[in-house]
């Protein structure tokens, strides 16, 4: 039998606020354990949460960028369970009436076709702390609790079960990653857990419209692992059914070392979280004006920008897609074309030389040593014939290393292109005189020798001769 | 007049007039506490050394003329308020070793005026109880009759005022925990409107119902204490940002023309005859003072106790989850995590607390949530609406505080339902979120105090204080003293 996988993703997005969601403590990563805590995030008796407005602003941005409606009166709820990293014995989250509801994202699937993936909801919540085992905890066999991360703001983005393959899941996840980093609300760092994902996976016979029993897979922290975990899980469920068994509803843990998933807890062992509205926080009322202000303040999103690059600048889809992979790259490109209007040339250089150099040196576009203005200046030098494209690459490398302007490099190295016809003519005359044999060969019909002459002229001019002038004059002279 | 009989205003005048120093007043209070405590048990912790040090500082302030009303006044507060560096138990064994690193906003406000902290007062464990019998630190006795309970959960706060162990005290009121003990001990006790006083640093029992308030010798002191406590606190999202009136300024405006509602559901057949008589007398007094009475109805009163015991316990079951032995408080010796949780909580909590945690956990459980918690919230809305409708026609309401005077120690401890019913007249006010005050209004044949409850509109503490003050001026109940 053929099976159809059905996948939904729950993505946790850690927000880039300076302070925590319900207290003023810093959210900085990697500090000494328990140095960024206060009575509120320690869950001390008597402490009360106060909502960080920035978190709400970020949530609204995320919602508007994923076509959600913003809930006018949203509610915080307590999710109750015991664990040592959860200081209050409950997590403040949202349950009924989350801040964003009913959105969608279009993703490009096989052959560039667009597919709409529903977003059920986006809600705000606080992160838990983390457990530290062994030596770090202060005793070799003990465990400690580090509450620096407790109360760090998260968004949970829950998709509809609209994804049909691991590839679709990865495309959707990348799209979401692109948006939250583009908005500047998340650093997108998957290794540090700033962007992490749980996957709900089930399978059903192709053609069926009854969903199979799903398993929830936790702890997936890279795009590669998402693909791996989902594919493993799909096959595991199919094998289970084919062997005459049944898929049970459970929570499973992905093990990146083996690429497999294993059962964490069954439905029977599932927590009853006893959600109820948190009486310490008043309902969050978001006015239409607030939503409108946020909408106005939204940056142009990747999709819109890509379309504009195609419509207004005439870039092909591939270029537009690459240049809008992240906001900094797109901004770089735009700054470049502001100084030099040949968009295709700027695009080629960014996708070519700049990207190569960034990759080779492991540099982010934000830290690119060559400014868009300097790149534009380089392209202008090619355009006005000062240097050739080939020379430009030498200049580029020098710019990258020294940080000098292209004009300065061209002057310092005497790289100015030789376009003066008289000077080139003189060189040609000398070379033809010195190679009479080859001249005769050419004139006898052996046109291949032409390349030899070009090479000789370029060599004699130490590469500075303008190639098109050389070509033109050589043809003239050789034909006699 | 002996020092410990003075009100805040009297002592303040004496301090300013240099008839007495704060150090003398504080020392006298500490001696009084030492003498009386073996018979009463109002305190869990007495902070003598700290009190004397604060008193000395207060005397310097008074000498320099930089003196607030509360500067140098010896106060005591319920052990539910966090006090930086001073053990805070909330009446529970699970916090027997808890020394808070910060202080409650409400206590900070008094401290910043230079008030002297005598110590932390006994209470029902986690404020769950109506008799102070559920404290892990011993019972508190009623100063008027030591075989009786003082009421609860702020029993220590009321007993300390009645036994002259503090000039005034702080309590908290979730379902009557200030008003009922104030009534039983013959002092003034005010539960402000929800949101009027910050809850930050007050150990939570039921967050949507808890409110901080003063217990005092008279209404004027109560008004002054509320003025000091009230106001928006950025650390408490549920505290409300509305101006705080000068409650003392309007006290003496009288009650002529004041419309007082008598909710028929509060004057039931089973009402104790002594309580009934005190109410009848109070109504006569108010009539003489020119108030008008209006018969009103709060039709959902019958459902209040049931509603309260679902909402309060649901919130409590979650609020008390943090007492898990991991970071502070009592931790039992155990082999694994689950055993550590179970043993710490089993050993740390008393039976009433356990009962309420279980009730609340049940009410929130999947499959029962709609039938219990959600339904209770709906009824709560109906009860609120009862008050809104009734207040359209009256300025305040007058009711008994409790159906009976203080009962005997041990009388209801094994019958939770009977115990819960002692709060039937106070609970609806918490559910409605409005303000109410208990003032002394008579004595039973057996000599126990009886309080009367004045219920006001939300954020209109001014009117109940004014009505209470008028009553106090016309009667002498508040001047009687318990002899110990």
Brief description of this entry?
Chain A is 40% helix and 20% strand.
What does this protein structure show overall?
The complex is a heterodimer of chains A (480) and B (484). Chain A has 480 residues and is an alpha+beta fold. Chain A has 15 helices and 16 strands. Chain A has three domains: 3-291, no CATH class; 300-413, no CATH class; 421-479, Orthogonal Bundle (Arc Repressor Mutant, subunit A), CATH 1.10.10. Chain A has a nine-stranded mixed sheet with strand order 2-6-7-10-1-11-12-13-14. A three-stranded antiparallel sheet of chain A has the order 5-4-15, with no helix packed on it. The longest helix of chain A is centred in the middle third of the chain and has 20 residues, at 223-242. Chain B has two domains: 3-260 and 394-479, Alpha-Beta Complex (Amidase signature (AS) enzymes), CATH 3.90.1300; 302-378, no CATH class. In chain B, helix 4 (105-112) links the parallel strand 2 and strand 3. Chain B starts with 7 loop residues before the first helix and ends in a 10-residue tail after the last helix. With 484 residues, chain B is an alpha/beta fold. The radius of gyration of chain B is 21 Å and the shape is globular. Helix content of chain B is 38%, strand content 13%. Chain B contains 15 helices and eleven strands. The A-B interface holds A 39, 42-51, 78, 80, 82, 84, 87-90, 145, 272, 274-276, 279-282 and B 81-82, 88, 90, 95, 98, 100-102, 104, 199-204, 206-208, 234-238, 314-315, 317-318, 320-324, 326-328, 337, 341, 361, 364-366, 369, 373.
Mean pLDDT over all positions of chain B: 97
Radius of gyration of chain A: 31 Å
Number of helices of chain B: 15
User: Tell me about the biggest sheet of chain A?
Assistant: 9 strands, mixed
Can you give the mean pLDDT of chain A?
92
Largest interface: A-B, 28 and 44 residues
Radius of gyration of chain B: 21 Å
First and last CA, distance of chain B = 17 Å
Strand order of the largest sheet of chain B: 1-3-2-4-6-5-10-11-9-7-8
Number of helices of chain A: 15
How many domains would you count in the coordinates of chain B?
2
Please bin the fraction of helical residues of chain A. 40-55%
Structural class of chain A: alpha+beta
Number of strands of chain B: 11
- Overall geometry of chain A: elongated
Uncertain runs of chain A are none
Number of domains of chain A: 3
Number of strands of chain A: 16
**CA-CA gap between termini of chain A:** 78 Å
Could you tell me the strand content of chain B as a percent range?
5-15%
């Amino acid at each position: 039998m053929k099976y159809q996988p059905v996948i939904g993703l729950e993505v946790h997005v850690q927000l880039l606020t300076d302070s925590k969601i319900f207290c003023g403590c810093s959210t900085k990563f990697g500090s000494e354990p328990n140095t960024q805590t206060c009575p509120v995030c320690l869950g001390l008796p008597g402490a009360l949460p106060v909502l960080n407005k920035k978190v709400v602003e970020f949530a609204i941005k995320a919602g508007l960028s994923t076509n959600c409606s913003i809930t006018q009166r949203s509610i915080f709820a307590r999710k109750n369970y015991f664990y040592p990293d959860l200081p209050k014995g409950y997590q403040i989250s949202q349950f009924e009436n989350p801040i964003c509801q009913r959105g969608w994202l279009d993703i490009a699937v096989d052959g560039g076709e667009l597919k709409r993936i529903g977003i059920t909801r986006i809600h705000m919540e606080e992160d838990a702390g983390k457990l530290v085992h062994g030596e770090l905890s202060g005793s070799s066999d003990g465990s400690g609790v580090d509450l620096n991360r407790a109360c760090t703001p998260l968004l949970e983005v829950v998709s509809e079960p609209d994804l049909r393959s691991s590839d679709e899941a990865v495309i959707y996840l990348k799209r979401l990653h692109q948006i939250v980093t583009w908005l500047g609300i998340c650093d997108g760092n998957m290794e540090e857990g700033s962007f992490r994902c749980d996957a709900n996976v089930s399978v059903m016979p192709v053609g069926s419209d009854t969903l199979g029993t799903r398993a929830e897979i936790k702890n997936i922290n890279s795009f590669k692992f998402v693909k791996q975990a989902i594919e493993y899980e799909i096959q595991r469920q199919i094998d289970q059914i084919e062997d005459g068994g049944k898929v049970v509803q459970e929570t499973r843990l992905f093990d990146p070392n083996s690429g497999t998933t294993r059962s964490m807890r069954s439905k029977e062992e599932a927590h009853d979280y006893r959600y109820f509205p948190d009486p310490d926080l008043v309902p969050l009322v978001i006015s239409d004006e607030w939503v409108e202000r946020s909408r106005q303040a939204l940056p142009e999103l990747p999709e819109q920008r890509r379309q504009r690059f195609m419509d207004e600048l005439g870039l092909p889809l591939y270029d537009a897609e690459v240049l809008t992979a992240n906001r900094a790259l797109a901004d770089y490109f735009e700054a470049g074309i502001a100084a030099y209007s040949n968009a295709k040339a700027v695009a080629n250089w960014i996708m070519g030389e700049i990207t190569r150099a960034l990759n080779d040196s492991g540099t982010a576009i934000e830290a690119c040593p060559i400014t868009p203005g300097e790149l534009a200046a380089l392209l202008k030098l090619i355009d006005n014939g000062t240097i050739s494209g080939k020379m430009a690459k030498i200049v580029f490398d020098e710019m990258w290393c020294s940080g000098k302007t292209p004009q300065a490099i061209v002057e310092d190295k005497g790289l100015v292109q030789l376009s003066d016809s008289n000077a080139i003519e003189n060189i040609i005359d000398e070379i033809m005189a010195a190679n009479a044999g080859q001249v005769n060969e050419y004139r006898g019909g052996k046109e291949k020798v032409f390349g030899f002459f070009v090479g000789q002229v370029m060599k004699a001019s130490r590469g500075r001769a303008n190639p098109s002038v050389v070509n033109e004059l050589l043809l003239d002279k050789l034909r006699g | 007049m002996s020092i410990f009989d003075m009100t805040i205003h009297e002592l303040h005048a004496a301090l300013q007039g240099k008839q007495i120093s704060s150090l003398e007043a504080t020392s006298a209070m500490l001696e009084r506490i030492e003498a009386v405590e073996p018979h009463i048990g109002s305190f869990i912790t007495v902070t003598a050394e700290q009190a004397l040090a604060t008193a000395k500082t207060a005397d310097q302030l008074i000498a320099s003329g930089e003196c607030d009303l509360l500067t140098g006044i010896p106060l005591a507060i319920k052990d539910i308020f966090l006090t930086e560096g001073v053990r805070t138990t909330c009446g529970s064994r699970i916090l027997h070793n808890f020394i808070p690193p910060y202080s409650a906003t409400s206590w900070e406000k008094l401290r910043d005026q230079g008030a002297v902290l005598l110590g932390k007062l006994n209470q029902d464990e986690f404020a769950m109880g109506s008799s102070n019998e559920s404290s892990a630190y011993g019972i508190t006795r009623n100063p008027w009759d030591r075989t009786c309970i003082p009421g609860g959960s702020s029993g220590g706060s009321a007993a300390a005022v009645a036994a002259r162990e503090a000039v005034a005290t702080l309590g908290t009121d979730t379902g009557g925990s200030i008003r009922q003990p104030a009534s039983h001990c013959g002092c003034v006790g005010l539960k402000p409107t929800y949101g009027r006083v910050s809850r930050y640093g007050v150990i939570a029992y039921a967050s949507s119902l808890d409110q901080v308030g003063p217990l005092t010798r008279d209404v004027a002191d109560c008004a002054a204490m509320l003025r000091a406590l009230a106001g928006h606190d950025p650390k408490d999202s549920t505290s409300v940002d509305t101006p705080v009136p000068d409650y003392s300024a309007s006290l003496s405006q009288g009650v002529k023309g004041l419309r007082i509602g008598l909710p028929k559901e509060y004057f039931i057949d089973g009402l104790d005859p002594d309580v009934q008589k005190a109410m009848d007398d109070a109504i006569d007094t108010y009539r003489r003072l020119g108030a008008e009475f209006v018969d009103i109805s709060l039709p959902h009163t019958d459902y209040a106790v049931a509603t309260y015991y679902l909402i309060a316990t649901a919130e409590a079951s979650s609020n008390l989850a943090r007492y898990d032995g991991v970071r502070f408080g009592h931790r039992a010796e155990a082999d694994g995590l689950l055993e550590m949780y179970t043993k710490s909580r089993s050993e740390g909590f008393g039976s009433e607390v356990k009962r309420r945690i279980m009730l609340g956990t049940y009410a929130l459980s999947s499959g029962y949530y709609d039938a219990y918690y959600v339904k209770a919230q709906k009824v709560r809305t109906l009860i609120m609406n009862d008050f809104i409708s009734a207040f359209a026609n009256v300025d305040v309401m007058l009711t008994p505080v409790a159906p009976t005077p203080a009962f005997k120690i041990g009388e209801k401890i094994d019958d939770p339902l009977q115990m819960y019913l002692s709060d039937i007249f106070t609970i609806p006010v918490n559910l409605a979120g409005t303000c109410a005050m208990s003032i002394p209004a008579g004595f039973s044949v057996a000599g126990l105090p009886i309080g009367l409850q004045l219920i006001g509109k939300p954020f209109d503490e001014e009117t109940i204080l004014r009505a209470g003050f008028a009553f106090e001026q016309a009667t002498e109940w508040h001047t009687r003293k318990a002899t110990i």
